[in-house]
């Protein structure tokens, strides 16, 4: 079936560096994407979203890029901090579907 | 703080038993979704309830059932538990579409 997946299961970055987390999606009909952050023992927390009619969206220290040609999504975190250590998921919504389809996640480890 | 609460936080059951998990939605939210998250995986959509009616279902067998109450709180019931049902069960509420979901901390179920 259609699915959302991630290229790297674990990403290790030094504090202060920029992080880039990637996601490939397979459903070309998906029109809305969300990045979530999940810390240990907690539920996923919304970070940033983007609609398929956009290529880029910026938030506070985070930027999401969408490349519909190659069905690729990325999350950029500027000046990564220890508090950014978590598992990051991309998720997609297709049409009027009532569900989010999540990928398997990338663990971000921030080293001092 | 999202306002979505779940109980219990942890639960141990044996194969063949039945379990009921509970979710209290954030105030004003009339939509609740349930997800199963196996260890190291992304959340998988189980079903969604909107104003006490099921409004979408994922690829889960009928032994997974749910209820939503007039105060928009919700229950997830699983009958005839199997070892593979061991997972974190997440509840998410929203005032409308899934784009604005807020997740609870989850209930970790272990089936022995």
Q: What do you see in this structure?
A:
The complex is a heterodimer of chains A (112) and B (112). With 112 residues, chain A is an all-beta fold. Chain A contains no helices and 11 strands. In chain A, strands 2, 4, 5, 9, 10 and 11 form a 6-stranded mixed sheet that branches. Chain A starts with a strand and ends with a strand. Chain B is mainly β and 112 residues long. The model of chain B has no long low-confidence stretch (mean pLDDT 93). At the A-B interface, strand 5, strand 9 and strand 10 of A face strand 5 and strand 10 of B.
> Into which percent range does the helicity of residues of chain A fall?
under 10%
Query: Tell me, what's the shape of chain B?
Result: globular
DSSP E strands of chain B, number = 11
Q: Which spans of chain B have pLDDT < 50 for at least 5 consecutive residues?
A: none
Distance between the termini of chain B: 33 Å
Q: Structural class of chain B, please?
A: mainly beta
Biggest sheet overview of chain A: 6 strands, mixed
Main sheet attributes: strand count, strand direction, barrel closure of chain B: 7 strands, mixed
* Total of DSSP H or I helical runs spanning 4+ residues of chain B: 0
Q: Count helical runs of chain A.
A: 0
Radius of gyration of chain B: 13 Å
Helix % of chain B is under 10%
N-to-C order of helices and strands of chain A: EEEEEEEEEEE
Mean pLDDT metric of chain B = 93
Biggest interface reads: A-B, 22 and 25 residues
Beta-strand residue fraction of chain B: over 45%
- Secondary-structure element series of chain B: EEEEEEEEEEE
Q: Which assembly state applies to the chains in this document? A: heterodimer
């Amino acid at each position: 079936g259609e699915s959302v997946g991630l290229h790297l299961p674990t990403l290790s970055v030094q504090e202060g560096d920029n992080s880039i987390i990637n996601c490939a999606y397979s459903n070309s009909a998906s029109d809305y994407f969300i990045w979530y952050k999940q810390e240990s023992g907690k539920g996923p927390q919304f970070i940033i979203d983007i609609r398929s009619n956009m290529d880029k969206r910026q938030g506070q220290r985070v930027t999401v890029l969408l490349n519909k040609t190659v069905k690729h999504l990325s999350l950029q975190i500027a000046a990564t901090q220890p508090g950014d250590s978590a598992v990051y998921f991309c998720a997609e919504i297709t049409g009027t579907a009532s569900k989010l389809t999540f990928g398997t996640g990338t663990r971000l480890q921030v080293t001092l | 703080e999202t306002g979505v609460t779940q109980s219990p936080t942890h639960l141990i059951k044996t194969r063949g038993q039945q379990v009921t998990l509970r979710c209290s939605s954030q105030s004003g939210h009339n939509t609740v979704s349930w997800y199963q998250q196996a260890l190291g995986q992304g959340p998988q959509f189980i079903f969604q309830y909107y104003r006490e009616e099921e409004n979408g279902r994922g690829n889960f067998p009928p032994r997974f059932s749910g209820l939503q109450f007039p105060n928009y709180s919700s229950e997830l019931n699983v009958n005839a538990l199997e070892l593979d049902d061991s997972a974190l069960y997440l509840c998410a509420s929203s005032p409308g579409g899934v784009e604005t979901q807020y997740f609870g901390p989850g209930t970790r179920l272990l089936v022995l």
